[in-house]
Amino acid sequence: MSFCTKCHESKPLADFYARPRSKKGHYSECKICTLAMCRRWQKANPDKVKKFSDDYRARHPDKMRENNRKAREAADPKKLKATMRMWQINNAGKCAAWASKRKAIKLQATLSPDPRIDAIYEIAAWLRLLGDDVHVDHIAPLQPSDPNAPVGLHVYANLQILSAQDNRSKGNR
Ligand SMILES: [Zn+2]
Hints:
7 helices, binds zinc ion
């Protein structure tokens, strides 16, 4: 884990771009923040961006052909869809964990970065793959049926794996 100096979140090292010559061996901003900074810089410096890409094209004509081929493939919507579906199947746990985190943020629930949260979604995804119809459930719901009830926390202690049947009978979703 490392701390992002920009968004002030602790994230796994995989979320940081490598920077071999630095002390930590990676950037101090996470990938998302690094990309955001790059985009801001690119927006502010369109002339420099154009010069870079013109120079790059001139120096790497073979790479350009390769990139064009990749872009054509990506533009084939069937192929792209199939690739994405495959990725989602292979990363079902991650997808579910992200989806629930996005929902928790939207509902302004309390979040805590905790690898066990990802793990529980990963386990549920594996169980589904093995044929069990299970879901990760918030014990105290994020969307309580009583509007005055407090919003459940998106933390490990508030998560459990439920069968879809039990989940429906809870009726709080
Ligand atoms: Zn960040």
